[in-house]
Automatic annotation (TrEMBL):
It comes from Streptomyces hoynatensis. Residues 14-50 are annotated as: Disordered. It catalyses: adenylyl-molybdopterin + molybdate = Mo-molybdopterin + AMP + H(+). Residues 14-33 have a biased composition (Low complexity). Its cofactor is Mg(2+). Transmembrane segments: none annotated. Belongs to the MoeA family. This is Molybdopterin molybdenumtransferase.
Amino acid sequence: MIDDFDDALALANGPGRAGAAAEGPAGEAAGAPAPGPRRPTGRAAHETPGWEAARATAYRAARPLPPRRLPLDLALGHTLAAPLTALTDLPAFDTAAMDGWAVAGPGPWRLTGGQVLAGGPAAVPLTDGEAVPIATGARTPEGTTAVLRSEDGKVAEGQLHGPGMQPGANVRPRGQECRTGAELLPARTPLTPAALGLAAAAGYDQLTVRPRPRAEVLVLGDELLFRGLPQEGRIRDALGPMTAPWLAALGAQPLVTRRLGDDAEALREAIATSRADLIVTTGSTARGPVDHLRAILAELGAELLIGGVAVRPGHPMLLAELPGGVPLIGLPGNPLAAVSALLTLAEPLLCGLADRPAPAERHARLTSAVRGHPTDTRLVPVSCRELGEASPVTYAGPAMLRGIAAACALAVIPPGGAEAGAAVAVLGLPAT
């Protein structure tokens, strides 16, 4: 799950989104996969969509990545491209649910000698009045009517004594969990550690998946320092260290973070030669003297799908599609504005690339009134101290990270603001 705020949302509408750690490129095919059909966006790029419309456009604009087969140890965080069906009954045979004795008929029972261990050979069949020691998970001998727990039995003079038991007691019958061919998980399910364990138990060595979209981050701006203290009018780069991990938490596989300054030719070359499924830039989304991104996208023949969003902070964010079908998201340079763009555009786009359902909407009640923008949606960092409640945090200006570093979600404040007690949508933040 992507954040610990999930447990505190009493009004949550649907399951949380699964976060996944970044993994290396082992097992991945080189080069960008051939693009599939894009979902129609239904909106002209020159319009400035509202926040909800922008998220819907980003989701519809994604071309789902082609499926590929991966071994189980490389499938974590990817998405099932087809339903997971059982290749065997689970369990595949009757097994002991705990340590004790496999018994046949009513007691007392005479011990036959030997013992039955998990993974061991088939035991000699039992007849009425017989018992044999058995370990948890071991296949029960033919003729077994129940398993007597070790703490309930007592052996005296070669006989086992214990209470009477119903037939089948402490036995996991064959097919108790599922029968061969049963659907265990539907297509479009994110592969969590538990899902991989289920796939292994069901007999799989490989899975057909929609891969995690590979993302490349391009950090722009000559004013940025990458080590040491701010000095001589230059500031530390805050977006480079956080953007790739944030994309990973949203379901991407970050490939590289490049620092390009305000070099227009370097930016053009980086975009034109990228082999990622998604390019994310930081800064240069406005129209200042060294903001080259929009001009370069036009030179490259990119289609501008979203040129700005009616949201604060982050309204200059953009979404474009390059001629080869690869999407590019432009994050504004202010930190909180960049986070706003990640959750507004990158989250739904990554869901679309992986062919997952659009992000589920969640709600919480505000503990205090929040001032709104007259016409635009506001995204406000909030903490959660009580179940289902969201409290705005301080230090939440567009250029600040202090507030969001202490927050667990962004509250979606509609134009005009929201009163205390109002239920508002919330966007969970990565916890790791």
